[in-house]
Each structure stands twice: as structure tokens, then as C-alpha cells.
Amino acid sequence: MNIGDAAKQSGLPAKTIRYYEDISLVVPARGDNGYRVYGPEDVHKLRFVQRARGLGFSVEDCRALLSLYEDENRASADVKAIAQERLAEIADKIAELKAFQKTLKHLVDHCHGDQRPNCPIIDGLAGPDH
Amino acid sequence: MNIGDAAKQSGLPAKTIRYYEDISLVVPARGDNGYRVYGPEDVHKLRFVQRARGLGFSVEDCRALLSLYEDENRASADVKAIAQERLAEIADKIAELKAFQKTLKHLVDHCHGDQRPNCPIIDGLAGPDH
DNA sequence: ATAAGGGTTCCAGTCGCTGGAAGGTCAAGG
DNA sequence: CCTTGACCTTCCAGCGACTGGAACCCTTAT
User: Fold this and answer.
1) pLDDT digits (tens, 9 = 90+) for A67-119
2) B66 touches chain A (CB under 8 A)
3) CATH number 1.10.1660.10 is the correct assignment for the domain at A1-59
4) pLDDT at position B118, please?
5) Neighbours of A10 (CB within 10 A)
């Protein structure tokens, strides 16, 4: 199948699929006319990557996961390790965002939000010593 | 003061400060030797940007906030609007990450993490139909 | 024959820096 | 006066993960 159909079946834009070939993530065969030819196995991989990316795995994580996906003799421990690292990153990011949220919400709550220039948000950003 | 001191006082790397001049965010004067010269007001602005970035505001948000910071006749409502938009983005991002977390945690919890190839994480990424 | 709707390549841009190379300037010490 | 070392300058390239666009080729239907 051509790239357009692979795009439809994988849920990825054709541009992205070409990019994945560029970085040797999912490399299709080529037809006589030079067109990329995607077989069912390629489409599986593309969908796999699409899902993994959707869960926030980096492309490099996807590369590692794909090679485990293809490895009949993988140890599930290796997969779990990658997923757990990603879980830790997610937790860190959530904590960071919650801290932003708290600070910002505090500032917003104290701002009148009217036509006058006095603004606790600006003051807060300017720093404690202002 | 020179860029090195401005860096120390603002908490930003010199490289970043040069970049901020490049994009016309904080533009210092120049000495006869061609060195950037940062006055106290410039340093205030740099610290302001440093804090705003630290709260996750985009550089373009910072540009808008800076111009409000400098505007004696600003309406605090304008500042509040920017901050509230950012708060909404933060909330969205947290929700997204929590969804990732939930899915991934579910997969991880069901993975033995041993030397055998069977792996619910891989299966989950491969899709429901596999 | 032509037009539509695929496909191809390559280059540039996004965002917010960051690293490095090659060179100019300044203050202190010998 | 000269050198050393720390600072400063510019410019170019790269990160991640695409995305847009230009210019061109291929296929199919009318």
C-alpha cells in the first residue's frame, strides 16, 4: 500500500511517516516507480509508534520499544523499565505544572482585573524586592 | 554592567540574554567597545522574564507581559487575561499527563517485568486488535 | 490530451535556547 | 611593553519532532 493509505490506517500524517523513514524508525520498501510501499507489518509498526507517541514516549523511546516489539526473545523487564522511566517523567512534569499552577493561581486570585494599573501579577513577576 | 554581571543578577545564562536581544525582548545599550551595557532597568526586565519563563509563560507571553510591566497606564485586566489563559493551558496539560499516567500505570501494573517475552505493555501499544 | 489526485525530493521554519569556533577587549602581573 | 587569562563579540549549527511549501513525477479517468 502507498503512503496515503498507510497514513489513514495508522492515524499518522504522511509527512510524519516520511519523517519516520528519514530517521530510520519505520523504513518501507520501494516500488518500481519509487513510491514507498507499506506492508501490513509496517502499518502495525506505525500504529505502534502512533500509540506510544500518544502516551508521550519520545521517538527514541519508540525506537527502543519497537525493537523490543519485534524481538521474540525480549524480556518484559526491559519494556517495563522504559515505561517506568516515562512514568517518572510524567509524575515530575505534573508536579512541576502543579507548582506553576499554585503560584499563578495565587497571583491571579489577588488581581482585581480592572482598568487600573495596579497588578499583583506584575508585582509578583517583578520579584519579592519590588 | 556587562553581560556576565547581568547574567549573575538575573539568573539567566549570558547566551540566553544575547538571544533575548536577538529577538528584541530586552535590548541593552552598547559601549564604545561594542559590549552590551545593561542598566538596572534592563536587569529588572531580565529577572521579570526569568520569573515569567519559570512559570511556563512563552517568550511571546513574556513580551506582552513586559510591555504591560512597562506601561504605567496598563489595565490589570489585560495582565489577568494572559495569566488566566496560561492557567487554562496548565490545567489542560495536567489533565493530559494524568491520562497518560493512568493508561501507562495500568499497563505497567500488569507487566511481570521478568525475563519472559510476554508483555502487556507491548500488547497495549500494539493495539486492542492484537 | 488533459486534469485531478496521488506520489517524490529538498529546503526552510517552528520554539527556546545551547554549543562551539574564531576573534576582539580589558585589567593585572612580570 | 608584553603576555596571560577572563571576558566580550559575531556567526553558524543543532536539539526534537515535526510541518509547510515549492517543484516536479506518476497514475488513472475522462
Assistant:
1) 999 999 999 999 999 999 999 999 999 999 999 999 999 999 999 999 999 99
2) no
3) yes
4) 96
5) 24
Contact (CB, 8 A) for A87 and B101: yes
Confidence grade of residue B128 (pLDDT, cut at 50, 70, 90): confident
B contacts of A85 (beta carbons < 8 Å): none
Contact B121/A79, CB-based, under 8 Å? yes
Which is nearest to A100 in space by CA: B24, B73, B1, B94?
Answer: B94
Q: Which residue is nearest to nucleotide C19 (CA to C1')?
A: B15
Query: Which has the closest alpha carbon to A9: B60, B106, B129?
Result: B129
- Topology of domain B1-58 in CATH is Multidrug-efflux Transporter Regulator; Chain: A; Domain 2 (1.10.1660)
**Distance (Å) from the alpha carbon of A122 to chain B's nearest alpha carbon:** 6
Please state at what angle helix B40-54 crosses helix B3-10, rounded to 10 degrees.
Answer: 40
- What pairing do the DSSP bridges indicate for beta strands B29-30 and A36-37? unpaired
Give the bases of strand D that a protein CB approaches within 7 Å: 7-10, 16-20, 26-27
Query: Does B109 reach chain A within 8 Å, measured CB to CB?
Result: no
Asked if the C-beta of B107 comes within 8 angstroms of chain A's C-beta atoms, the answer is yes
Mean pLDDT across A6-27: 97
What pLDDT, on the 0 to 100 scale, is given for residue A128?
76
Residue nearest to nucleotide D17 (CA to C1'): A59
Supply the pLDDT for residue B130: 61
Domain boundaries, chain A: 1-59, 75-130
pLDDT given for residue A129 in this prediction: 67
Contacts of B89 in chain A (CB under 8 A): none
